[in-house]
Amino acid sequence: MGEDIQRLYSAGMRLTSDAHRLLASREDVKHVVDKLLVANLVFVTKEDVEKVISQESKLPTPVEVARSPSFKPSAKDFTPRVKVVQDEDVSGKSRCTGTMDDFVVYFRNRFERMQKLLRARTNSNPFVKSSRLRQNAMQKAILVAMVIGKRITKKGDMVVEVEDDEGQALIFVSAKEKCFKDAKALLNDDIVAFEGKITETFLIAENLMWPDIPVLKERNYTKNDVAIAYLSDLHVGSKFFLEKEFMKFISWLKGNEGNEELAGKVKYIEIAGDVVDGIGVYPSQEKELIVRDIYKQYEMFTKLMDEIPDYITIIVSPGNHDAVRRAEPQPQLPPELLKESRALSIGSPSRLDIEGLRHLVYHGTSLDSIISGISGLSYAKPEEPMLALLKRRHLSPIYGGNPIVPEAHDYMVINDEPDVVHMGHIHKNGSMLYRGTLLLNSGTFQARTEFQVRMGHVPSPCIVPILETASGKLTHLSFKGEETAISR
To answer: Which residues of 400-431 are buried (b: 16+ CB within 10 A; e: fewer)?
Structure first.
């Protein structure tokens, strides 16, 4: 039995004799087997194999765009400077099996690292553990703990239930305290520091501290005068993918659409996930696909990337529509999906250094649970839920909000202080500068879908943020319509 056919049996699939013979007779058996594995059938008949073979749908071929003969891109003169922080990328390192012990190790790692971030803040009062609160009654202290619940009293005050690695405690937050507003934004599983006076029953909070970014963090710039273009949520393969507008973006990179000076500075393109629409991501998705083969979707994506000038470094991170595990952290896209692509493939989240600027790239799947969990946040302003995650120094603080793989090292902790935080997922552009850190959401190149119409969500397609790294200037370019326009 051939090794490729054996992979089907190893996956628990059963083949009829006719299906086995047909597969064994084909030179492209590996490719056909790959597609059968994606289909995840229990019994494979000859008709199933023939159906897969017949689905060699013709890929839309991008129209080749020539570079303007007078275009002299300055970025071509610079050597790319990109370094992935391997310790903070799960790719090739996932070892857990999802046991109870794995979850214990995961939460312990998360708590210890978050506690370290909070203890690093300058404070006049001592830190105490929950087990020693009564011994320090009537004194002021700081307790670092995880929120497990909260409730409002009849008088409008708040009681927060918390736990640390030594026990549980109750925090009382008066509605008159300044920190009451922050307390209302607390989510289950948030790890924060409560500062206040200890009584026999409570720690009466006078201050609530998020792990946050230091107030005095300075904004960083680069020596080389280059630019980074940020993309996400292309959804190649969807009938809503705006290929014409995306090709206009590529044409702009080649000096054909105006603003040649900025176009010539683009040295890097960073893509924060959902590069293709995927297969079976949601019910009846096949009705909204023009390419129903996951391999061909990535082949189409690769062809689009090949149109980008070769002096530009392309960085690709996955999202929830891509062909990697749904649970986070997500490893990089498999090499067989990006074969013949020159893109640098990274996980989600991932940390990388571009020209000396520290980047945090994350698709942004947890933005859904943050927006629904905190009053006042919305999909219209993605930078605000992004800020909520940055203040928490954690990319998925609510356990159960979206699937998490309990790795021994919690890759969702924001351990360092990034210069740029880049997300996508919600198809809406937004940006904000916070304490020297640029937060930006790069929107989408997918038109408004039927689901978004039903939900009342209005995306902002075809708007690309461009960061000039030497000056810190951020420009939003719109590629929708006849002319390339600057969108503020």
So the answer is: ebbebbbbebbbbbbbebbbbbbbbbbbbbbb
Rounded Cα gap, residues 220 and 321, in angstroms: 33
269 has pLDDT over 80: yes
Cβ-in-10-Å burial (0-12, 13-18, 19+) of 339 comes to: exposed
107 CB-near residues (< 8 Å, 6+ apart): 406
Tell me the per-residue pLDDT of 332-370, one tens digit each, with 9 for 90 and over. Answer: 999 999 987 889 999 999 999 999 999 999 999 999 999
* Residue 186, pLDDT score: 96
Sequence ranges of the domains in the chain: 3-54, 74-93+224-487, 121-209
Give the start-end residues of each E strand in 153-245: 158-164, 167-173, 191-198, 203-209, 227-231
pLDDT by residue (tens digit) across 252-265? 999 998 899 999 99
For residue 19, give the 3-state DSSP assignment: helix
Q: What is the pTM of this model?
A: 0.84
Q: How far apart are CA 355 and CA 341, in angstroms?
A: 22
Q: Closest by alpha carbon to 136, among 204, 207, 206? A: 204
Residues 433, 226: Cα–Cα separation, whole Å: 20
Side-chain-side CA neighbours of residue 216 (13 Å): 2
**Terminal alpha carbon distance of the chain:** 61
Q: In 3D, which of 483, 361, 482 has the Cα closest to residue 423? A: 361
Contacts with 427 (C-beta within 8 Å, 6 or more apart), sequence order: 233, 443, 444, 446, 452, 457, 459, 460, 461
Does the pLDDT of residue 419 top 90, yes or no? yes
Give the CATH number of domain 74-93+224-487; options: 3.60.21.50, 3.20.140.10, 3.40.1260.20, 3.30.870.10.
3.60.21.50
Task: For tokens 């400077």, name the residue.
Answer: 81
8-25 confidence digits (pLDDT tens): 887 778 888 888 888 888
CATH C-level class of 121-209: mainly beta
For the segment 76-116, what is each residue's pLDDT rounded down to a tens digit?
999 999 999 999 999 999 988 889 999 999 999 999 999 99
Secondary structure of residue 95 in the 3-state scheme: coil
Six-digit token string for 29 = 């058996």
